[in-house]
Write a structure and sequence with these properties.
The protein has 11 helices and 9 strands. It is an alpha/beta fold and 289 residues long. The chain has a 7-stranded parallel sheet, with helices on both faces. The longest helix is centred in the middle third of the chain and has 17 residues.
């Protein structure tokens, strides 16, 4: 019984691998370049790519459970559908898919809409899966750390509706636990969706106040200028991605990213401990600077 982890060299996927290994699972990691892959002892590394069908078939041969994580790329939707079709042909009936929270609401945001399409495929084809729907990753704010610490501004257009930010480490542990739950079940388990949220729903002003406390100086919220946000992002990411992020920011302003009743309690029970808080993430980030 083998668990295949895709996206295994990324921030989430690598931690999923570590959690699975610690719990005694037989883990196979799909990577593009095995020479750059560093995993715990016992992990089987297989070279492959979502658009290389033969390599996917090879990677999924003999696999019982799949963790599907697709990077935000222009052809993310195609990659995910191909992977699920190959998994279905390989007889894999136990799947955990990393989607995103509220993909049915953020319908004009490309990477949200793509993930919603993948969810529809899973549901309509009767695939046995847990769909994990994470809110905004706390660790996304590492890319704006210099603006916070150097210029005293929190520039992410979070708005005043609030985001239920979640720590990547919690996402990875929950994903690993779900993979093992499905892997160890006597029969494939039915479709389930889990919102992955943090313990606090924070506005832009709230987050700036947290950084002010952590850094012991005034940090201001930069406001909701999504056009300026896009221009700043274009300095270090492709134009299409900067625009995608702008669209996401606009939905932050109009809709927020809010948990549903019972989400925090469900995740706390699943982990057997409290969810990590944004203030702890900010303190760790400042200490590491």
């Amino acid at each position: 019984m083998t668990i295949l982890v895709t996206g295994a060299t990324g921030n989430v996927g690598s931690q999923v691998v570590e959690h699975l290994v610690k719990r005694g699972a037989d883990v196979r990691a799909l990577v593009r370049d095995p020479s750059k892959a560093v995993f715990p002892a016992g992990v089987s590394v297989v070279q492959g790519d979502f658009l290389d069908i033969d390599s996917l078939r090879n990677a999924m041969s003999g696999v019982s459970t799949l963790f599907l994580l697709n990077a935000v790329v222009p052809d993310e939707f195609t990659q995910a559908l191909v992977a699920l079709n190959v998994a279905r042909s390989a007889g894999i009936e136990r799947i955990v898919y990393l989607s995103v929270i509220h993909p049915d609401v953020y319908v004009n945001v490309p990477h949200f809409a793509g993930k919603f399409g993948v969810e529809r495929m899973i549901e309509q084809m009767g695939m046995n899966a847990t769909i994990l729907r994470p809110a905004y990753f706390m660790q996304n704010d590492l890319m704006i750390k210099d603006a916070i610490t150097g210029y005293g501004v929190y520039p992410m257009p979070v708005g005043d509706k609030g985001l239920a930010m979640i720590d990547v480490r919690d996402i990875a542990e929950i994903a690993a636990r779900e993979l093992l739950r499905r892997e160890q079940a006597a029969q494939p388990l039915p479709l389930d969706r889990i919102n992955l949220v943090g313990p606090d729903t924070l506005t832009g002003t709230d987050i700036a106040a947290i950084w002010s406390d952590v850094l012991a100086r005034q940090i201001n919220y930069g406001g909701g200028d999504t056009a300026a946000f896009e221009q700043n992002l274009k300095q270090f990411m492709p134009q299409w991605m900067a625009y995608d992020m702008r669209m996401m920011g606009e939905r932050f302003l109009t809709d927020g990213m809010l948990p549903e009743a019972g989400d925090v309690e469900r995740l706390t029970a699943l982990l057997g401990r409290p969810l990590r808080r944004y203030g702890d993430f900010a303190s760790e980030t400042a200490a590491a600077a």
